[in-house]
Amino acid sequence: MPAKDKMDKTKMVTCTAPVNIAVIKYWGKRNEELILPINSSLSVTLHQDQLKTTTTVAVSRSFQDDRIWLNGKEEDIAHPRLQSCLREIRRLARKRRNDGAAGLDSTGLSHKVHICSVNNFPTAAGLASSAAGFACLVYTLAQVFGVEGELSGIARQGSGSACRSMYGGFVQWIMGNTDDGKDSLAQQVEPETHWPELQILVLVASAERKPVGSTSGMQTSVQTSCLLKHRAESVVPGRMVEMIEAVRKKDFPAFAELTMKDSNQFHATCLDTYPPIFYLNRVSQQVINLVHRYNRHYGETRVAYTFDAGPNAVIFTLRQHVSEFVHVVQHFFPPETNGGDFIKGLPVNHTALSEELKQGIGLEPMPKGVSYIISTKVGPGPCVVEDPSQHLLASDGLPKECV
Amino acid sequence: MPAKDKMDKTKMVTCTAPVNIAVIKYWGKRNEELILPINSSLSVTLHQDQLKTTTTVAVSRSFQDDRIWLNGKEEDIAHPRLQSCLREIRRLARKRRNDGAAGLDSTGLSHKVHICSVNNFPTAAGLASSAAGFACLVYTLAQVFGVEGELSGIARQGSGSACRSMYGGFVQWIMGNTDDGKDSLAQQVEPETHWPELQILVLVASAERKPVGSTSGMQTSVQTSCLLKHRAESVVPGRMVEMIEAVRKKDFPAFAELTMKDSNQFHATCLDTYPPIFYLNRVSQQVINLVHRYNRHYGETRVAYTFDAGPNAVIFTLRQHVSEFVHVVQHFFPPETNGGDFIKGLPVNHTALSEELKQGIGLEPMPKGVSYIISTKVGPGPCVVEDPSQHLLASDGLPKECV
Questions:
Q1: What are the backbone angles phi and psi of residue A231, rounded to the nearest 5°?
Q2: Distance from the A228 Cα atom to the nearest Cα atom in chain B, whole angstroms
Q3: With an 8 Å Cβ cutoff, are B281 and A282 in contact?
Q4: Mvd1 C-terminal domain: from which residue to which, for each copy (chains A, B) (predicted)?
Q5: Closest C-alpha to A207, from A346, A348, A347, A308
Q6: Collapsing DSSP states into helix, strand and coil, what is residue A161?
Q7: Are B188 and B79 contained in the same domain?
Q8: Minimal Cβ distance to A272: which of B264, B278, B285
């Protein structure tokens, strides 16, 4: 290889993407390869100050192979879903070049990529890191190859729920009807600035065992649960309309109740799966009881829970109730030490709980049931990181540090 | 009152009635007062040698009021469901007397009754004691008043599932269609002698808290769960046909799988209720996992579970597998002491478990999760106890012993 080729500049872009939490749940595919869902879903994008994936993509003529490092460890680039995303982005870039799109930087279209990605939260938090991860990958690849426009359909092919992490705020994934999946896309319902009072708490539950993965879980559910089929066909369409309306009107009780009902119905279809799947453990059940008793005590719906395919609760509430509810959780799930480590993220004021409230809730405390709380809010979609010092890859195209 | 009246002979009858366990579950009423269900159900009657209610009814001109003692404690006879049963039996007796039925002993129709009832199993066992209790009450009252024929419609008005305890063997409760409930009756599908290989184990789980009662639980489910409505209307009718066929053919795998699926679906509808109801605790979840892993190890369905509105499992298996499975339970739920107290009821042979089986199941043991096991089988319906020494009431009409 001539020396001048080796000197070719490596092109490098770093982006971040958010985690999202579904309030109308996605569970079950009608097409496994294209990742087409059996129903539409709706999610809230969490703020990247607390939870995000950061990805650097480098392209260079000097790279011999496509390679990927996830959280400091090199992984197999041959993973079919990774390959889908790489292939689709390159196809789109090629198509744009051939169409003669203005300003397209087609450098490197035939070169190999190095990808490096890290999360700022532990995998143990059980948050759907694949959604943030694939959204970030697709967004960053698109920047590198100069692709613009609709990208959620590509992110979807990495991980279904990743398509919803392509936007900030409140996002719906419209299931679509066509066989090729071209109309199965995410769409922003309202931006992250729409409902500033809405606050989010992630309650990381101590888990006794590793739950069934969502990919195989939803396959089994589609094959065996007749309640899931009914839910997808006859329940979710109406709920999507109701949820969009609740979000638009910032109607917290309506939003909260529908969120809780939909979480419960998703877990009900897991239980109707054969063999049944349990994602809610005794801590989750106690969080559910706590929320209902808290709301009952005040005679209004002030707090809502939702659970994905794991035991951790995501709590929605309004700003004026955050501090009290955090202390309610701390009281009924007394942590090992009462240090500041229990509450991470956005600051939470101290609040003393009244005896009346504690007695009104009337649950037996469950020590160490909740490991910690992440306090966060609704946040924006993927962003480019302009500061080159933040790149995760060094100029030689290898990770700066192996964790 | 003249002395001769006081001398009038007290008429006394003692009967026993069985517990039943539903394999197609009843959950939800379309008429609360008449106790008319939203779907048909099917149960297996458990043997009275292990689990039964015994009831003595006495009638005497000298009694001033109707009175009832349950498990040694006097209870309020004004309870509406008790009153329904008393009223309906007396109405039937009066009708038969007016119709001039041959051999009818109409003595005492205008007299008051004393009722005394005990279970031979602890209420803590969480077995639907109200089914056995109301079945026994109605059956005994009918004997006292000389009423014959169809009685399940009256037992149903005491407690829905009590109608199924009016027969032995395999019993369906046909939901019926009429508003007056006259066609909502139990019917024997096959007698207790039909499938002698079928054996039953009740796994009494250590419970952390008292679950939601079934009466209020099913009301909330009917009001809030859209999955329950779908189940009742569109799933259960087909399952009733399949279950009756599996029982008739003694097809254990078909019977077992449908039993497990229906139990899971019932609990799924509880979770789809708002607020959600949890009857399965972590012990129940572990029993479910154990059964599926045991079956998977052998590549065939040898054992099935079903759970009513509580954490205790009822296990079905065939005679040749009882001993091994009991020891599997004992291994994965190590009791406090390994004494004989862990296994009650029908004798169970000792079996050594192979390492291969233990490793094939591969679960973490959960010490003291199961308090004890009751080993039993399919049994007959209500019976008259001929031995007068077994009466629970003394000749003065008061309980022989107050516990």
A1: -55, -50
A2: 9
A3: yes
A4: 200-385
A5: A308
A6: helix
A7: yes
A8: B264
Same domain, B168 and B300: no
Question: Is A324 at the interface with chain B, CB within 8 A?
Answer: no
Chain centroid, CA B270 distance in Å? 20
Residue B111 covered by a domain? yes
Q: Does residue A148 sit in the same domain as residue A290? A: no
B269 touches chain A (CB under 8 A): yes
B264 contacts in A (CB within 8 Å)? 271-274, 276
Q: How far apart are CA A43 and CA A23, in angstroms?
A: 5
Could you tell me if A223 lies within 8 Å of chain B, comparing CB atoms? no
- Residue among A25, A236, A271, A287 with most chain B CBs within 10 A, to mutate: A271
DSSP string, A41-108: EEEEEBPTTTSEEEEEEEEETT--S-EEEETTEEE-TT-HHHHHHHHHHHHHHHHHHHTT-TT---TT
> Within a domain: residue A396?
no
Let me know whether A272 and A167 are in one domain.
no
Any domain includes A402: no
Give me B169's structure tokens. 């063997």
Domain tally, chain B: 2
One domain for residues B148 and B283: no
CATH code of residue A258 = 3.30.70.890
Chain A CB contacts of B265 under 8 Å are 227, 271-272
- Concatenating the DSSP letter of every residue in B166-235 gives GSSSEEEEE----TT-TT-EEEEEE-TTS-TTEEEEEEEEPPSSPPPPHHHHHHHHHHH-HHHHHIIIII
Nearest to A35 by CA among A176, A206, A139, A245: A176
Percent of chain A with pLDDT over 70: 93
* Whether residue B222 is found in the same domain as residue B296: yes
Same domain, B260 and B345: yes
In terms of C-beta density within 10 A (0-12 exposed, 13-18 middle, 19 or more buried), how is residue A318 classed? middle
How much is the pLDDT for A109?
83
Chain segment B162-186, per-residue pLDDT in tens: 999 999 999 999 999 999 999 999 9
Q: Is A271 on the interface with B (CB under 8 A)?
A: yes
- Please list, residue by residue across A194-215, b when 16 or more beta carbons sit within 10 angstroms of its beta carbon and e when fewer do: bbeebbbbbbbbbbeeebbebe
Q: In the predicted model, what is the mean pLDDT of residues B36-47?
A: 98
Q: Determine the distance in angstroms separating the CA of B348 from the nearest CA of chain A, rounded to an integer.
A: 28
ipTM of the complex: 0.92
CATH number of the structural domain spanning residue B44: 3.30.230.10
pLDDT of residue B251: 98
State which residues form the domain around A262.
198-377
pLDDT tens digit string along B68-127?
A: 999 989 999 999 999 999 999 999 999 888 887 655 555 678 899 999 999 988 765 566
Cis peptide before B122 (omega within 30 of 0): no
Domain for residue A47, yes or no?
A: yes
Residues A247 and A283 placed together within one structural domain of the fold: yes
